[in-house]
Amino acid sequence: MKVTREFIEKMPKTDLHVHLDGSLRLSTILDLAQQQGVALPENPKDEKALAKVIRMGAICEDLRDYLKAFDITLSVLQTEESLYRAAFELAEDAAKENVRYMEVRYSPLLHTRNGLSFPVIVEAVAEGLREAKRKYGIMTGQIICGIRHITPESSLRLAELCVAFKHRGVVGFDLAGAEADNPPKDHQAAFDLIRNNNVNLTIHAGEAYGPESIHQAIHMCGAHRIGHGTRLREDGDLLNFVNDHRIPLEVCVTSNVQTRACDSFESHPLPFYMSYGIRCTINTDNRLVTDTTMTEEFWRCVQHYNLGVGDLRKLMIDGFKSSFMPYRKKRTVMAMAVEEFDSLVADFAAMQGAPASEYAPNVAQEIGSQFSRFQSQLPEDPSELLAEKAPKVEKKEAPRAKKKR
What we know:
- It is a single chain.
- The chain has an eight-stranded parallel beta sheet with strand order 1-2-3-4-5-6-7-8.
- The chain is an alpha/beta fold and 405 residues long.
- 48% of the residues lie in helices and 12% in strands.
- Keywords: Hydrolase, Metal-binding, Zinc.
């Protein structure tokens, strides 16, 4: 069956790595700026001009250059109303492309310029997400972020906030921000508090810095997932550890190209990770700044890496598996998503006149499919194979022992 953009848009999806302050609508920024009396750089009059100022989708010099756009978005996200609206609209946009579950991450520390308290900020975002669930049925969770280049003490305060709102909409903790010269181990106290309270932990690592950052995130900080992990391939031992322990990667392909974590789509390690067996999830990172959607991310991967329906199915399943939903809920939601996906395949296959059963992966589970083909060539009785290959052994008469005189 041929994969189409329409199929991708209709398939159930997750987005586990998406930043609230990087995913606003252009129209919302302009509207909020006018309401709040916020002067935007270069005074853009319309969405096209604002997109140019933000450099939406443009290739940046590096991650630090990429993060400059957040100065604009954060300038209008300092009220309860704006946080509620941003959260609701993000979930609404995701739901309209059949994202069934999304984890929205942000740092309350960056929304306190007008005096909002941490709990008020979290509640405003939570109410926006709850309203989207009531209207569209999309399931969501919040991930509270510490900031690498701000003090470790501030990360500890945010970790305390995360623990307080556990089971109240918050599903995990993260460390974000400029990666170079800001190792995760500096924020150890925050991670200790998170782990000791049985809270899920993901850390940005291996995006703008090498595999040492990933090593620290896993072995020193106890991360359950890795944000990006683009440079994991540079350390074979660590790569195998991540694979053996099924530590998921939150892959953001377009963002990685935009921040120059990868030179191009063709040089991105995603197809290698998939063929090797790494648990990969596809994510947007920042819908506005990166100018993308979940549909667009999957579609670009199909175009650049020749992903088949089986690959999409595997990536979808890994997305639900890697979520911070409780296990029992996750199992139910994933089963429903798989059933919906397979039904969608049957419908599209029928429209294209292709057999619905023939959608083996092109990239993911490559070793598994090769083994399946090998198994199909084996005889029904394994002893037949042994009989054919076993060498014939000629029996020789044992020499007689000499009698002693």
